[in-house]
Amino acid sequence: MDVSGKVVFITGGAAGIGLGIASAFAARGAKIMLADINEAQLEKAAAALSATGAEVGTVVCDVADEQAVRDAAAATVERFGKVHIVCNNAGVGAGGRAGESAIEDWRWIVDINVMGVVHGIEVFTPLIKSHGEGGYFVNTASMAGHVASPAMAPYHATKFAVVGYSEALKDDLAQDNIGVSVLCPAWVRTKIYDSRLNSPTVKAANKGEEDSANFSIMKDVVDNGIAPELVGEWTANCVEAERFYIFTHPSMLAYIDARHDQIRADYAACAADERLAAEPEPMPIPT
Ligand SMILES: NC(=O)c1ccc[n+]([C@@H]2O[C@H](COP(=O)([O-])OP(=O)(O)OC[C@H]3O[C@@H](n4cnc5c(N)ncnc54)[C@H](O)[C@@H]3O)[C@@H](O)[C@H]2O)c1
Q: 130: CA distance to ligand 1 center in Å?
């Protein structure tokens, strides 16, 4: 895919990975619309990108709010005429052990990490189809959408959802000349650990920075992650190559292999059961 001259809408574009993606697309001659809840950070990011000669617009938008995404899409069309590439990237991090996780925190992370992507797909698909030039979605999931670890179930649940959702969209949208990639980084050096400060329970308890310090394990691994600019560059490379999975950490394949080994072992147990094996062949999965 040639991204030069295309209009790219990026949620969570004011910082971190979203800004890294914005810089990479801008360097390839794309026009950029940054959408984010953080207005001050949006303006800083836009100023930095504009200084490189890029054409940049901004819009304040909470991806959890369907109407806000519709308004942001309208603002993008008003500014640039059309949209070709949408990066559903905004996301937050929240953990919690089973039995100790507040339901309102679950709803918060699902609304942003899952419904935020759903809003982006549902709002922008008709707009991309309407101009007939084709388009592309990049949904930001995570390695956390392929392998799970303890005490981070809410985050894993949302990221597995984004991987599965993107896999379903890929063949669905191919018929409309719209490509799909799913971005699956492991640790990237951003401020994602601060996002937990916006969760309902942390806000209500007014724990502020104190809570952030308690989140130190996540902070340590994130602070030692790879640069968001590199993730942005590789993402743009993968969109140009129309590669579906965008992985960024070669050594993490071992974790995916271990998960698949477990699936194969448990599948073998089902295949060895005479009652299950005696059942007729299932209908093929529609493709
Ligand atoms: N940092 C990592 O290690 C890592 C690894 C894998 C995946 N990810 C994913 O990458 C994406 C970007 O995260 P990041 O690490 O750049 O974090 P970040 O916190 O540095 O940047 C996220 C941006 O999204 C914005 N944002 C948060 N909630 C929003 C909302 N409701 N609507 C619109 N904007 C919102 C924030 O203001 C911020 O500018 C997320 O989906 C995250 O889950 C991050």
A: 29
- If you measure from the C-alpha of residue 191 to the centroid of ligand 1, how many angstroms do you get, rounded to a whole number? 8
H or E element that contains 10: strand 7-11
Does residue 245 carry a catalytic annotation?
Answer: no
For residues 206 and 101, the model is more confident at 101
Domains and CATH numbers, the chain: 7-252 (3.40.50.720)
What is the mean predicted confidence (pLDDT) over 141-159? 96
Catalytic residue, chosen from 136, 155, 165, 193, is 155
Question: Which token pair is 269?
Answer: 């147990």
pTM of the model: 0.97
* Residue bearing the CA closest to ligand 1, atom 17: 192
pLDDT above 80 (res 213): no
End-to-end CA distance of the chain: 24
pLDDT score, position 219: 87
CA–centroid distance, 95 to ligand 1, in Å, is 15
- Cβ-based neighbour number of residue 216 at 10 Å: 11
Residues in the chain: 287
